From TrEMBL:
Keywords: Ligase. GO terms for molecular function: DNA ligase (ATP) activity. This is DNA ligase (ATP). Residues 312-351 are annotated as: Disordered. In the C-terminal section; belongs to the ATP-dependent DNA ligase family. Residues 100-232 form the ATP-dependent DNA ligase family profile domain. Pfam families: DNA_ligase_A_C (PF04679), DNA_ligase_A_M (PF01068), LigD_Prim-Pol (PF21686). InterPro entries: DNA_ligase_ATP-dep_C (IPR012309), DNA_ligase_ATP-dep_cent (IPR012310), LigD_pol_dom (IPR014145), MtLigD_Pol-like (IPR033649), NA-bd_OB-fold (IPR012340), NHEJ_ligase_prk (IPR014143), NHEJ_LigD (IPR052171). The keyword Ligase applies. It catalyses: ATP + (deoxyribonucleotide)n-3'-hydroxyl + 5'-phospho-(deoxyribonucleotide)m = (deoxyribonucleotide)n+m + AMP + diphosphate. It comes from Lentzea rhizosphaerae.
Amino acid sequence: MLAKPDGGRLREGPQWAYEYKLDGYRVAMRIAADGTTVLTSRNGLDLTAEFAELTGVLRGRTAVLDGEVVVYNESGQIDFGLLQQRRGRFQKHRTARRDDPFTDVPVRFLVFDLLQLDDELLLGRRYEERRRLLTSLPMPDPFHVAVVPSFSAVELAAERLTPQRLLERVAAEGHEGLVAKRLDSPYIPGKRPDFWCKHPLVQTREVIVCGWRPGQSGFTGTVGGLLLGAHDPATGELVYIGDVGTGFTRQERDLLRDRLQPLERRSHPFATTPPREDVVRARWVDPVLVGEVRFRQFSRGEGGRLRHTAWRGLRADREPGEVTAPEPGRPQPAPLPTTRTDDHPAPPEVTNRVTVKAGGRTLALSNLDKPLYPDGTAKSEVIAYYTRIAPFLLPHLRDRPVTFVRFPDGVHGQKFFQKNVDASAPSWLPAVPLRGGGSRRGSDEIVRYPLIHELAGLVWAANLAALELHVPQWTVTGGTRNLPDRLVFDLDPGPGTTVVDCCRVAERLHDVLAGDGLTPVATTSGSKGLQVYAGIDAPAAQSPSAYAKAVAVAFERETPDLVTSTMAKVRREGKVFIDWSQNNPAKTTITPYSLRGRDEPTVATPVTWDEVRQCRRPEQLTFTADDVLDRVAEVGDLFAPIEQRRAPLAG
């Protein structure tokens, strides 16, 4: 029996119970009276040999148990990626015809239903009756087999909890979400009725692998991305639903290449030819492999596409015929009902504040489910991004006064700049008073800028919906401005040009800066343009501006049809504007790894010079928050040379 998506509305009422949504392989465990055990997947694969340590755990009763096999990571969280890696190692173990037991990664079987006990088939019994029988069974080895907790409405109320509060606890513990199950529901094999409703915290989808793109740059010789399909739920036809290029380890890319090459075919397998621009360099394969992706949204229209995808792994326990395309859009959480009856009082009021720990500090966060981007990216996801990127971002914020660009009503609402630390800021947040930080030219106003030195500071800022973090090219020590330690060229594409044109200018800048003994680093702006930085030792505060202006003017003189060094917008048509003025001590620039307040949660992203040289389409240098987290896991901090390799600035 399968759980039906709840459309973003967690079911509530006295007739419902709640279980953790698990992230593993769905498995039926069939046990004979002598302890002989057979494990099968949802699509009938025999997994007994693969999970041999789960056999023989229960004896004395004939039973059929329904549950999931899971693997835990070092933090005690269920980790589907580790389960996938274990499966890959098991396949190698079996291929090598090794006889020794395969105990590479411990697995555990988490049971949530009992389908048969002794000679009685229990499918027609109520869920609550099956659960009562299940929990009465002795589980002598909890390290291998355990029962998933279930929480009835009465039990939640006794603990002063609501379903929403339980969901918050589940999120904090790192689980995937909740499954709500009606107490009176029978078990209907192979069906997806309204009796079980799943409420995922992260959307995942099974997909059919229909093709792949060879990797480029650092991924040459392996898989760069996969082209995905699914069956139209109305017609049954195989349709193209997008691609995925992130979430792979290098080992997974190589294993996929080896699996896909024998399956190659000359033409695509879809009922309708996909758009040409979507399938450039595609190599098609027979649609026989099923995988799983995370995604944020399924776009509307006839050509629906999965958006913001990340790979989770192959699903050997699924058949291609089971995979259907999702419903368009992105489910939004609906408010829980607060009605009451005489028999069932309303649950305690749910406040919209959550207390969390961040690096040892305690913070109160609010409105976590509030969408800040049109694709539905909520404040909670913004906070999660800044939490995970913190080890790479914080070194580049150290001792730099930060200007926030806040979007309290989302990126399509009113935005405002905030420099001053107001009275609501936590007492532990460091701030530096600097003169001349007012908005008026020549202002002598003193502004108390925040300094973000730790994770808690980032989380606090993200809770303010401070999506963008801007910093100057200098640091402060003891309340005093230091000389600039960064040089920056901000390349802004004018009308009729794109970041591709910026890349051609950046290549020339690279050669000039390297010729002057500097180490240039490129980063996207997270919007339309590109920036080129270098770490410097400046002889005076105005030296970087003078140097950058001289370079920009020289570029304009050499190629006046391609480059302008003049800020006037009427001069930018068909040209790249080299904004040298960002080096003015009064100016700030978006910091690398900061989000941008655009239609999508794009990020100012450091890139390699190979990526700059090979860029031929704007989307090649467009990175979302999920993309960046995958990138830093793969390549580390590409902006680090700015702090590590400073050189004197030429006069």
